[in-house]
Amino acid sequence: MSLITAAKSMIREAEAKDEGYLERGSKEYRQGSLALFAAGLATFAVLYCVQPLFPVYVKEFGLSPATASLSLSVSTILLAVSAPATSFLSDRIGRKSLMVLSLLISSVCCLLTAFAPNFASLLAIRAVQGMVLAGLPAVAMTYLAEEMEAKSLGFAMGLYISGNTIGGLFGRVAVSTLTEALSWRWGIGILAVISLAASLYFWRNLPPSRHFRMRRMEPKAILQLFAAQFRDSGLICLFALGAILMGGFVTLYNYLEFRLLEAPFHLPPTLVGWVFVIYLVGTFSSSWMGRMSDRIGRRAVLWINVLLMLAGILLTLSAQLAVVILGAGIFTFGFFGDHSTASSWVGDRAAAGKAQASSLYLLFYYVGSSLGGSAGGLFWSRYEWAGIVGMISVMLLLAMVFSFALTALVPERAKLLH
């Protein structure tokens, strides 16, 4: 490395330290990244823990698969519509305070779910849990965009998304296994205690916000800040991608378990629950693609991952179990790579109202999850797995259109990473 390059590197390091940004390699960067990893784990464990229980709810409460899927959809849709409110709430009470409250209250809701006497009360608790959980995902992305040094953001965001991945995996597998050994109520109750422990770890270890400034804005100003995000065609494309990709992803895993329980596979319920181990490829993908986006640019990473998702979903048409699992793994790899890339891009692209931009991304993301997951039940009931594959394939072709549109956009802000 030349003296000039070394000098420039030292200047950048000094500037990052002077400005108080969390830089990769520092103690506070590690603490913050791991705390957000734990928060993502707890959030997505309690959010998705009911997904492997759909067949259980079908039998216990006498429901259709589409109705059973509401136990997840009601949480994600209310998380989506509540996310924008959390953006200005975090501007008033602080990023960390809101995230801590979100995690603690959602853990209590998870515990109450275990005692729900019927499906209607279960849905009511899950609805409240969805609203409360909205306080973490959008604010976490805003915290990262505000506090992390620019060149360290991709890896930190990837690690946070990895926590989401492992949390979703852990919640599904743990509850599925405990349900087989004990009951679904014990499984959710034990998960609630683990979520509470992760919440306390997050509270103690997340560094305070150095770049947050408390703001009090009039409702009109808040609405103008939200409206401003839609004047950026790049952000609109990213919002649309979040909705489409998450809708396809949730649809795949909502109904894959039903397929594996039936011919020609006839897998036992416990083994079907362990299919969610495929999520581990997402843990690698999100952090690896985060680094790749820092190096080669987000535009290239986005459309490549959409192609991987399309190849993966087509492979699941096979009657061979190994090929189906491989296809689901490729699909999952592509999805988490795209989500990590798009979510970090949103916070970085927004010139003003970063919290509002992040919350709008999550609004579209979870609306896509809820609508796609429930609509998939109609395709499953009528066309079975071929209908699911057809639905997701059309969604991915649409996602490809938005990905190519992003490659053609000229950066509008100096902070946009290429």
What's the structural blueprint in terms of helices and strands?
Blueprint: H1 3-18, H2 27-48, H3 54-61, H4 65-68, H5 70-93, H6 95-113, H7 119-133, H8 137-147, H9 153-181, H10 184-205, H11 219-229, H12 233-261, H13 269-273, H14 280-296, H15 298-315, H16 321-349, H17 354-408
What is the compact description of this entry?
The protein has 418 residues and is mostly helical. The chain has helices spanning 3-18, 27-48, 54-61, 65-68, 70-93, 95-113, 119-133, 137-147, 153-181, 184-205, 219-229, 233-261, 269-273, 280-296, 298-315, 321-349, 354-408.
Structural class determined from secondary elements? mainly alpha
For the terminal residues, how far apart are their CA atoms?
Answer: 24 Å
Strand content: under 5%
Low-confidence stretches: 1-18, 413-418
Helical percent range? over 70%
Q: Could you tell me the radius of gyration in angstroms?
A: 21 Å
Shape: globular
Question: Residue-averaged pLDDT, rounded?
Answer: 82
Structure description:
With 418 residues, the chain is mainly α. The protein contains 17 helices and no strands. Helix 5 runs parallel beside helix 7. The model is unreliable at 1-18 and 413-418 (pLDDT under 50).
What keywords describe this structure?
418 residues; mainly alpha; 80% helix; disordered N terminus; disordered C terminus
